[in-house]
Design a protein that fits this description.
With 555 residues, the protein is an alpha/beta fold. It contains eleven helices and 20 strands. α3 packs parallel to α11. The two termini are 48 Å apart.
Length: 555
């Protein structure tokens, strides 16, 4: 009995070259390195040793050895022992039941002088209230001066409603739940119930939700289906080959494309076009990889063409907005610039901006009321698909783990920055700002691409619960400058009180981190103490660790 072997770097199409009898094939698929070992009494086999010195083989062998070393450095499942025998253990950096911003430098506790204090919390809220009351009075004065209708009544500008949907992958289940619960709050839109949105903007997962949110509660069952019945297989297929590392993406999003294509029907496009004709607007954002810029698509304008090409363009725009770079392939758009043909690569809009704002449309006959306080009294609702702050989690000092944690934190910070921009715009224009995100105390997955039905249903239900309360409750607020006894509320010149809106459970009217007890404290050393908030309330900034053991070290 003789043992024969042939080593060759081949493509799968050349596999037939191995004609030896009783051949056994051991394939390293990624490198397409095939080792064929045959057992036979046949004496015709020859081993050419000089083949092992060919540059192609040497390169393949170097890659294979490198992969073995990388795999060897990985941790075993228990997370403490690697191939080289080194044990890795460290105390996770957050005690059980403690929020990150509750860690205070021991010396700072003795220092009561905080130069940032007057610029935060209740003082900024008061300044915002003053500005809103001023903007409402400016709006009322402008309306009085405007043209009167045939009955002699002054023009009254309507309060607009703007919905902003963030990206978040699987966490979009929370946003879908909020919208569906909001529809069943039993409240009128001016009392905190779900309104008909004048403008809807969406990114990534928010782009998937946006057409259905735009068309109203009629499409709530579709939202519930999209975020409570799907699994990973309905969204993507992992490319199970190291060849994927050299391809455009690790996974194929063909299942997601098929689902979007089936959901965005010609009937739905016609309804979007009809609402666009009424002055309502729907926008979706993508990122142009070549220009590194946000691209905003006017979906209603595209739908108004009424063609199959327009429908397919909307499908591709939604697919592009949800294309996580590196995980999903980019979407190609062939455009023309002054008669010349160009190709653009578009991916997830969230890498340019976590959320984006577009004002509502005003017809030309209302230009006389245009001004800096045009939107005073209107509402801006930002639905964050995720938490305001990532859950604290011990990170292993390994390249992939560190980079992953840093990028994730950057995305959260980017979303909070967007909320600050919206809040600032609302404060200056007299609009009312509301945002909601997954409560900090809700224990959730930390993987936005793991479409686990149980996790999605849990987040959907929590969103539904919060939506059922309605976004706000109308109220009046006392004017701190009032000299009356007792003080009077903010009022119009005719004495009527100006209406304010208090956010309901699960909503907030300030961006995360604005309150003084939310921001990070200064450190002057390494000895820290835990300082609880008054009343022990949980802030919308924390971790799910309160519902279980201390956070594990990330693998």
């Amino acid at each position: 009995m003789s043992l024969r072997g042939n080593v060759e770097i081949v493509s799968s199409r050349r596999l037939q070259k191995f004609a030896a009898p009783k051949t056994r094939l051991l394939a390293c698929t990624a490198l397409q390195v095939r080792l064929c070992v045959a057992e036979s009494h046949d004496t015709g086999g020859v081993v050419h040793l000089h083949d092992f010195a060919k540059p192609a083989f040497l390169f393949a062998r170097a890659i294979a050895v490198g992969l073995i070393l990388i795999l060897g450095a990985c941790q075993f499942q228990n997370g403490s022992l690697n191939l080289f025998g080194r044990r890795y253990e460290r105390q996770t950096p957050l005690p059980k039941g403690v929020e990150p911003n509750e860690l205070v430098d021991a010396k700072e506790l003795e220092n009561q002088n905080d130069p940032l204090g007057p610029l935060e919390g209740s003082e900024l809220v008061r300044i915002t209230q003053d500005r809103r009351a001023e903007a409402m009075n400016e709006r009322r004065a402008r309306e009085v001066k405007s043209k009167k209708d045939p009955l002699g009544k002054s023009f009254q500008q309507k309060d607009c409603n703007i919905l902003i949907l963030s990206g978040g992958g699987v966490f979009g289940a929370y946003s879908a739940g909020v919208l569906c619960g909001w529809s069943n709050s039993g409240k009128a839109s001016n009392g905190g119930g779900r309104p008909i949105f004048d403008t809807v903007t969406g990114m990534s997962s928010g782009a998937l939700i946006s057409p259905f949110a735009f068309l109203g509660s009629e499409y709530d069952p579709k939202l519930r289906e999209l975020y409570t019945t799907v699994s990973n297989d309905d969204i993507f297929k992992i490319r199970r080959s190291i060849r994927a590392f050299f391809a455009e993406s690790l996974a194929s999003n063909e299942p997601l494309q098929a689902k979007i294509n089936a959901s965005i029907s010609a009937e739905l496009i016609a309804k979007i076009a009809a609402e666009h004709a009424k002055g309502r607007r729907l926008y979706i954002g993508t990122t142009n990889l070549d220009t590194k810029r946000l691209v905003v698509w006017d979906i209603g304008s595209i739908a108004s063409r009424g063609t199959e090409e327009a429908r397919q363009l909307i499908v591709n725009v939604i697919l592009a907005s949800a294309a996580i770079p590196g995980f999903f392939p980019s979407v190609r758009f062939n455009i023309g610039v002054d008669g010349a043909a160009y190709e653009e690569l578009h991916v997830d809009g969230s890498i340019s901006s976590g959320m984006f704002f577009r004002p509502p449309y005003f017809p030309p006959d209302q230009t006389e009321v245009v001004g800096p306080t045009l939107l005073a009294g209107s509402n801006l609702y930002a639905l964050v698909a995720g938490k305001y702050y990532p859950d604290p989690e011990g990170v292993k000092p390994r390249t992939i783990a560190v980079v992953s944690a840093a990028v994730s934190n950057l995305m959260y910070a980017n979303a909070r920055g967007d909320l600050y921009r919206f809040y600032t715009y609302c404060s200056l224009s007299g609009m009312d700002f509301f945002s909601t995100a997954i409560p900090a105390e809700l224990k959730t997955t930390n993987n936005s691409t793991n479409f686990d039905r149980g996790e999605m249903i849990k987040m959907y239900n929590e969103g539904y619960r919060i939506g059922q309360h309605g976004a706000f409750t109308p109220t009046t607020k006392i004017d701190p400058k009032s000299e009356a006894k007792p003080p009077k509320p903010y009022s119009y010149p005719d004495g009527n009180a100006i209406e304010f809106k208090n956010p309901n459970d699960g909503w907030r009217s300030t961006p995360p981190g604005l309150d003084s007890e939310e921001r990070s404290r200064n450190r002057s050393g390494l000895q820290l103490k835990v300082k609880k908030f008054p009343g022990g309330e949980k802030r919308p900034q924390g971790t799910d660790q309160n519902a279980g053991p201390p956070p594990p070290v990330a693998k």
